[in-house]
What does this fold into?
Amino acid sequence: MPVNYPPAPKHTPRWMIAVTLAAMVGIPALILGAVLVATPLLQPGVLDAALGFGPETSPWTRDLVYVAAVLGLGFLMVNFGAIFSGAISWYERRVAGRIQSRIGPNRAGFLGFFVWIADAVKMILKEDLVPAEADALLFRAAPYFVLVGFACTFVVLPFGHSLAVTDLDVGIFYVTSVTALTVVGILISGWSSNSKWALFGGMRSAAQVISYEIPAGLAIFVPVAMAGTLSMQGLIRAQGGFPWEWFAFRNPAALVALFILFTSQLAEANRTPFDLPEAESELVAGYLSEYSGFRFAIFFLCEWGNIWVLSAIAVTLFLGGWQIPGVTAEQIDAVRGAATVPALAWWGWNALSLVVFTAKTLVLCNVVVWLRWTLPRIRVDQMMGLCWKYLVPIAFGCLVFTLFWQVGVGARPQLEAITGGVLFAGAVVLALLFGRRVRLNIQAVQGDKFDLSNW
Amino acid sequence: MSKKLYTWIALAALVVLFVGVLGVEVGRGGALPADFEVGPFTLRDAIFYLFAALTVAGAGLTAFSRNIVYSAVGLLTALTGAGAIYAWMDADFLAVTQLLVYIGGVLVLILFAVMLTNRITEVKVSNVSLGVAGGVALLASTVPVLCFVALATPWAAHEPEAFGPTTRSIGNAFLSQWLLPFELASLVLLATLIGAVVIARKELKADEPDPSLG
It folds into this structure.
């Protein structure tokens, strides 16, 4: 029984193009602008100075203001995660369409950009089903565990020079530990659905996440050993703006650790090629088989939001974070001024650092999306074998090498500069070769045909 | 279900009240230093009591729930609350470690084991030699001792100067003053790992190919 869709419009109307482009630029600009303005201003020190709090202020007033500030920042960050995951869901479907020689969503707005908003409306309007034999309480609660595990990472994720909700001294350690709540949520959702597919999905996911936390943790030790701190901002400040000053190129083991971390994080986020917990072809939809409506949406929101989280962590640890080439963090500190509200130049540098960090992270997000549509899913035994037989020993090797390397750098500081230059030059050569290979492949299929009529 | 839940919340509140009263008594008992002043009740205290209540309620749910999965969720609450209390005591590293080890490791392992067993609801108690009477006897014998210890010990109470990072000092202590216990603990863990591998691996017959290869 074919559905009679209306025929595709010949041309997208001009006003639709204008509205869509405005939304594509406006929505990210709005949320990132809110992050830029709110995170430095809603800090305890600034609030104290602005509201004239001193030792004589009632602790109740003060603490209530702090709690309100924290709630405001939390609201902002959850919205950031939601908007990002919506936008990346659209982007991913478009990329998948390009890679698989099809069109992808192209009806809701120009380029189909509004499809994620349409999806959200659809999800909210759907019935929230609970299977008859399921454990209703836990079934309903499970998405919240996953959401909390995802949202808590934003407490320490940096966005720019002074743009983070807070800079915990145990930042990266904290990030690795709150992901545990996601595992608990997935396990509970799998079990409480009372469906064998969901249970298998939950089991696989837990086994996978616990296993891959070990190489990920060991890989994280490498930049921590190089920077001598666990705080996210401290890790970025220990690096430099130019690529040869990044941790990834300053130490050969760190480059290996970057790949290990990225692979492990992909596995922890249940992304292809490690999407065994959700393997649609094997397990219906894994641990969220029985979910519908908005609870289903929460799971997927966290899954896509995790792309940002894992890319941001990789950028923070290995790729220089928000460091602007040619400008040190201390120089930005110096232009802040002594006033409660920082000087205009400071805001400018912060905005630039936000742009740098976002650009790097989006490049990595793009890599994550590419991988999903290029690599096939691996088997369970291959997944476990990769983790325990290859990644864990290599990560251990990287850690030991780094410890000796740091001793060597202490004796000969120019060692890092030489390695950084050599490895970065190698990376540039590889990128050029990659570009050439892509060009040859495009020529082999008689040119890349961009058919703009169906956009 | 809900009536039970209210009962547990009430019980948890009672326990927290008991602890609070005991704390005040400890303060009155002259065990605190002379310059120690109990400040006014602030929002921070309220949040602390909230976390304490959560911890106790979770522990109660773990102990009294008939369903093991609910026990595990109660354990999650209790462990998270304990982590929050560590954060209150200016122990940031310890709080995060609590989250990582107990929720990321122990609790997930428990959930894993529980979900692979069937008939988890309505657990049959196989050991009935010590029933309610035994439990009450145990309670009656331990609570006075604990109360006496709490009241008689000269607690070293001090307000932290400022909320500061602890990671560096913990690392230095582990590798200087407490090096031997630290390494011994590592050895114990290594022995556990080897034991787990020995128990978990399959016995291979001489003529069978190894299924884990290939």
The mean pLDDT of chain B is 78. Residues 165-207 of chain B form one domain. Chain B touches chain A through 28 residues (CB under 8 Å).
